[in-house]
Every structure is written in C-alpha cells, then in structure tokens.
Design brief:
Among the domains are: about 130 residues, no CATH class; about 80 residues. Helix content is about 75%, strand content about 0%. It is built from 21 helices and no strands. Helix 3 runs antiparallel to helix 4, helix 12 packs parallel to helix 14 and helix 16 runs parallel beside helix 18. It is globular, with a radius of gyration of 23 Å.
C-alpha cells in the first residue's frame, strides 16, 4: 500500500518527454552567467538522473543491458571530470559508485540519492531535490519500510509546499500521517503539522491555528519535545498572520528554546527576530537576524534572514544598510521558493515606498502580485493588493518605524533580549 507510486507516480519511461528539466534549466542559467564549472555540475546531475531512470526501467534484454553499460561509462567519465573541490561533485560520485554494472539496483543506492536530495534542498534547489527524492524512493522500491516511507512523504510534502504545490503537498503529508499511525507518533504529528501549513499557505488561518494548537497539546502529553517545538513554531507563524504579536513572539521563543536540531533552531530564530521587530525591539531583532544569516543553516534560512534584515533596515530609515542587505539577497534570488520570491517583491516595494520611490515601489509590488496569483498564494495576493492600495492613497513620506514600542518593554521580552545577546556572544550556532 505505501509504495513510491503513491507519492510520486510511476517512473517515467517516455523518450519523447523532457525529464529532469530543472537540472537543464540550472545549466542554462549558469552558462548565461558564464559559470562553466557550475553549468557542468548541473549537466552532471542531469546525466546521473537519466542514468538512474535507465536503471529503474531496465529489462532483461541483452541489447538494453549493453546500452546501459555504455551510458554508465559515459556518466562515470563526465563525473570524473567535474570540479573536485565542491560538495555536489562528491554527491554525484557517490550516486554513480552505487550503481552496479550488472543492472541491478544496489541496496545502498537510495541512501546516496536521498543524501543528495537533502544537499540540494539545503542549497535552495527545491525542484531538483524533489527529482532526486523521487528517484530515491523508486530505488528503494515497493518493500520500503513504513518509517522510510513516512520520511519520504514528509520530505516530499515539505518540498511541494515550499513550491506552492498545495494538492501534492497535502497528499504527501496525509500519506505520512496515515502510514505512521500506531508506529511513529512524531511522524504522525509532523504530517498533521504539514497539513496545517498547507492550510496556512492557502490563507485558512483558523484551521491552521487549530491544527498547531492541537499538536502542541498532544506532543506535550506524549513528551515529544521536538514535535512540540515544531508545533510552537507553526503556531507562532499563525499568531503573527492573525495580528497577535506578543503571542507570536512567545510561541516562537518557546520553539527556539525547545529545538535540538541546529537547522530548525536557526529557522526558528529568524521567526523570533521577525516577532521582535514587529513589537519594536529593533536592536535585538537585528542581532538575531545577523546570527541566522551568518550560521551554517540552509540557503532558505540564510536568505530569509537577510530578506527580513533588509525590511528592518528600510523600516529604520537606514538606506545604506538596506542597499547592502538587498545586494546580499540578490545573490539568492534564482534559488528562492515561490513564497519567498513574493515576499522579496513585497518587502522591496514597501521599502522603496518608504524611501519615496513610488514608481519603483509599484513595479516591485505588481511583480509580486503576479507571482502570488500564478502560484495560488492567496494570503500574499491580498496582502500585496492592500499595499498597492495604500501606496496609491498615501505613500509614506517618512522613514520612521511605526511598530509599537511599548510591547518591547514587557519584562518577558526584555529577558528574551538578554538571553539572545548571550547566545550570539557564545557563538553556539
């Protein structure tokens, strides 16, 4: 029942269909930017993916096996000529070395493919990561243990959600929850949180909040700290979207304190910083953003922290710092998820409005509106529509941050600030 086909469909066999297009698109972009080494890496990923396709659909025909041998040797040569000092080459070499010449799927192949998929996600190459994850699941085959299936489903759900593919994400999260029932309570709760995150992405905040609150309670009863941290993080996001600023900060900070995973902790720290900025604790927020941006977290986390720092500096009226952050964000533009790209255009438009550049602000917001519409990001669409309306009615002539300063004086918030500064000074991240 819980097979790769449930999540990813059948392995493609048509020679008339362009498969693994994201790798070719990356190669094209890198060549346009005259980055030949990076383009060769992308093509290397493409030919390796095609090799795995061939392996998974290989029959017992001698002619097919001979063709597979030729393809395997060609891929080995290509990978051996790639830059040897970059992590992606090591991942590609690891996958190729796990491909057996006899045409049989080796037991360790799926692990090499999954590791490569995680690397691609870390680098913000979400569509490519999904391609590799699909191959990994098919390589493990129909006898995949329930725990591994749930892990695939959660990973695929997250990638699809970040790509704003809501139906696919819901299917994957639901499959994870169903498969793990009675076996792995953490995966059950994570699947439930994933479904709540899809509801949030589609703008159904009450349902998303109810889901997160339910998981907070259940994880607490089961003493599942990591799951509770994830639930508090999701609850904080919903609180923020509903306008409950102090509650959002408190939830995010609980998630930060409970998180053991370094990547998750940095993701949560960005949320803490956003909440601090919202209540007027600008200096503490700046420290938290800078910690996350300088960390070893994945590209999405680092880019998001820079994006939020860009917004903070524009709200503070610091044009020089804003432009510096904007330049740093630009380096990540090609790898942003749809929602982050929309957020970039929104924050850029708002910032340009603050600096009295209404025409450029309108251009940025309009681009963000089109992106939000094309990806079904309903909450973002309405938010940008409102920003465009406010730009027409009364462009902001001043550069003063209007966030409520009184909440930043709450004793609990002051204590958070002290603890965050100590954390930044400790270099524990």
């Amino acid at each position: 029942m819980y097979t790769p086909q449930l999540l990813f469909g059948e392995v493609g066999t048509s020679t008339n269909t362009l498969t693994h297009e994201p790798f070719l698109e990356r190669a094209r972009l890198q060549r346009e930017q005259e980055r030949e080494g990076s383009a060769r890496l992308a093509l290397g990923a493409y030919v390796v993916a095609r090799l795995i396709d061939k392996l998974l659909t290989l029959g017992n025909d001698a002619e097919q096996l001979e063709g597979f041998h030729w393809q395997l040797e060609a891929v080995r040569r290509h990978v051996s000529e790639l830059p040897g000092d970059v992590p992606e080459t090591a991942h590609l070499a690891g996958v190729v070395s796990a491909v057996a010449a006899d045409g049989k799927v080796a037991p360790g192949l799926w692990m090499s493919l999954t590791a490569y998929a995680y690397y691609l996600e870390h680098e913000g190459r979400l569509e490519e990561a999904l391609e590799l994850l699909t191959l990994a699941a098919h390589s493990q085959g129909p006898q995949t243990p329930v725990a591994d299936f749930a892990a695939y489903a959660l990973f695929a759900g997250r990638l699809n959600r970040l790509l704003a593919r809501w139906e696919a994400a819901s299917t994957c999260y639901g499959a994870a929850e169903s498969a793990a029932a009675g076996v792995d309570p953490i995966s059950v709760l994570r699947g439930r949180l994933g479904l709540g995150a899809v509801q949030r992405g589609r703008g159904n905040y009450p349902a998303a909040r109810a889901t997160a609150e339910g998981v907070v309670r259940e994880a607490g009863e089961l003493q599942l700290t990591d799951a509770q941290a994830l639930a508090y993080a999701d609850l904080g996001v919903v609180y923020a979207l509903q306008g409950f600023k102090l509650e959002a900060l408190e939830s995010h900070y609980k998630a930060f304190r409970l998180s053991h995973d370094p990547q998750q902790r940095m993701r949560t720290l960005v949320d803490v910083a956003i909440a601090l900025h919202e209540i007027g604790a600008v200096d503490a927020a700046r420290v938290a953003f800078q910690v996350a941006a300088a960390s070893s977290a994945g590209m999405q986390v680092r880019a998001n922290s820079l994006l939020e720092l860009m917004d903070l500096e524009s709200a503070s009226g610091n044009r020089v710092a804003f432009e510096r952050c904007r330049a740093s964000v630009e380096a990540h533009r090609s790898r942003m998820s749809p929602s982050m790209s929309v957020d970039y255009h929104y924050k850029l438009g708002v910032a340009l409005g603050r600096f009295e550049q209404s025409a450029r602000a309108r251009e940025a917001l309009t681009a963000g509106l089109a992106l939000a519409e094309s990806h079904g990001l309903n909450a973002w669409y309405f938010k940008i529509e409102q920003a465009l309306g406010e730009l027409t009615k009364r462009p902001e002539p001043t550069r003063v941050d209007q966030r409520a300063p009184s909440l930043s004086e709450v004793p609990a918030v002051r204590q958070m600030e002290v603890e965050l500064r100590e954390y930044a000074a400790s270099a524990a991240y």
